[in-house]
Amino acid sequence: MRLPTYFISHGGGPWPWLDGPFRRQFDRLEESLGDIAREVGKPKAVLMISGHWEADRATVQSGEFPGMVYDYSGFPQHTYAIKYGAPGSPAVAQRVKELLEAAGIPAALDPERGYDHGTFAPLAAMYPGADVPVVQLSLKHGYDPGEHLAIGRALKPLRAEGVLIVGSGLSWHNLRMMGLAAREPSQAFDAWLDESLRAEPAKRTQRLVDWISAPSARLAHPEEDHFVPLMVAVGAAEDEPATRVYHEEGFMGGVTASSYRFGQV
Q1: DSSP type of residue 40
Q2: What is the pLDDT confidence band of residue 76, given thresholds at 50, 70 and 90?
Q3: Of 106, 208, 216, 225, which has the most beta carbons under 10 Å away?
Q4: pLDDT at residue 176 tops 80
Q5: CA separation for the pair 168, 57 (Å, rounded)
Q6: Are 141 and 59 in contact (CB under 8 A)?
Q7: Checking phi first, is residue 179 left (phi over 0); if not, alpha (psi -120 to 50) or beta?
Q8: How far is 138 from 57, CA to CA, in rounded Å?
Q9: CA-CA distance, 167 to 1, in Å (whole number)?
Q10: Are 171 and 9 in contact (CB under 8 A)?
């Protein structure tokens, strides 16, 4: 049995540790993340490809007990003392590195890297007990879609080894265009994304490689750090169907956002 892979929209900053109106914007997203955990159960480990970490080569977090990276600003003081205490998995990290290198992809281990909010925020909703080992994998500088699809292909065997592969970003990530201004362009980009991901495999891959030609592409992603994690999730399940597992219109005041599963539960 192979686990499916996922691309998730991970929300804003340390949202699970907040309350009030800002926190309530993430209720539907939180429900969808909980649904993912319920449908796959507790895997051997989660391999998280976060839009908040990139390096000159694919780099794997390999510490046994990773710390925290508070990579946000302007939030309440208590959110800079958050602890998501999931253990790492040096064995899974080594396996990731070996698979990448066997595919001719340069890779490295980083025993010092901590969990950034692209990892710990969604996992707080998925596995609030922090009782599943977690390993982060960096993006590669340049955000080349083909390179990240290839990374996903190399990691496909992990799915049969009990490792849940999750690309963590946002389907719309333009922090200067949120709210009502984002309504029409985010709808257009989301419609293209849904059509592309539901296409037959070869066409889907090609459309992702050429994503910059999508409607409102550069409005959706002035930089594609929050989009490229999708490529890894797709590459690891390239010939398998896509299912939208989260969709919201009016997210953050106007954004249309989505998350996807690749493969069957």
Answers
A1: H
A2: very high
A3: 208
A4: no
A5: 18
A6: no
A7: left
A8: 8
A9: 20
A10: yes
Q: Residue 253 has what pLDDT?
A: 84
Residue with tokens 């550069």: 218
Q: How crowded is the C-beta side of 11, counted as CA atoms within 13 Å?
A: 27
Which residue has tokens 């599963």?
A: 261
> Rounded to whole angstroms, how far apart are CA atoms 47 and 38?
17
What is the SS3 assignment for 243? strand
Other residues' Cβ atoms within 10 Å of the Cβ of residue 90: 17
Residue 250: what pLDDT? 85
Contact (CB, 8 A) for 48 and 135 = yes
Which amino acid is present at 52?
H
Domains and CATH numbers, the chain: 5-262 (3.40.830.10)
Average pLDDT, the chain: 95
In angstroms, what CA-CA distances link 164 with 4, 42, 70, 114, 223?
7, 9, 24, 19, 26
- For the sheet with 242-251, list strands across it: 107-110, 58-61, 134-140, 45-55, 163-169, 5-9, 255-262, 242-251
Q: Where are the alpha helices (DSSP H) in 106-182?
A: 117-126, 145-155
CA atoms within 13 A on the CB side of 34: 10
* Residue 15 burial (CB count, 10 A): 23
Distance CA 151, CA 147 (A): 6
Q: 66 is written with which tokens?
A: 């990773």
Mean pLDDT for the stretch of residues 207-222: 95
134: which strand partners?
A: 46
Cα–Cα dist 105/239, whole Å: 21
- Tell me how far apart the alpha carbons of residues 183 and 240 are, in angstroms, rounded to a whole number: 30
Residue 187 CA to residue 230 CA, distance in Å, equals 18
Are the beta carbons of 155 and 165 closer than 8 angstroms?
Answer: yes
